Amino acid sequence: MILAICHFFTVQLVDNHINEQNGHFSLEVPDGCLKVLKAKGYSGKKLIFGIRPEDIHRDNAFLKVFPQATMKTTINVSELLGAESQLYCKIGAEEFIAKVNSRDHIAPGEVVTVGMDINKGHFFDPETETTVY
């Protein structure tokens, strides 16, 4: 099931990266967030990472400035909604939606690079479901 409000990924904090549980992506965690997660004892532990569709980007400016926060994903559906498009993405078994500028046409089956604004994401404890960051 795809939720349009927020997407959740099970990750593990290793050094300064979050690694998706099945190895499909590894993203660098910004310093401020990393300090909080480590101070709360989550180094080497599993977390739930949540991010909203509007905080997943495809524009070149974001991808060039934050290459450490990018991943490749397969597009299942590209839904044009005027000034923006919703990209229904898949990475491994995980499905998620990215809201992006509609100026680029992306065909189903195409593999594209997207970037996640980790500073706008949230981390949750997988057992208690409480917000960690």
Automatic annotation (TrEMBL):
SUPFAM superfamilies reported in the protein's UniProt record: MOP-like (SSF50331)
Signal sequence extent: none
GO cellular component, as recorded: ATP-binding cassette (ABC) transporter complex, substrate-binding subunit-containing
GO molecular function: ATP hydrolysis activity
InterPro entries in UniProt: ABC_transpr_MalK/UgpC-like, Mo/tungstate-bd_C_term_dom, NA-bd_OB-fold, Transp-assoc_OB_typ2
Pfam families: TOBE_2
Keywords (A to Z) from UniProt: Translocase
Annotated ranges, domain Transport-associated OB type: 50-124
Protein name: TOBE domain-containing protein
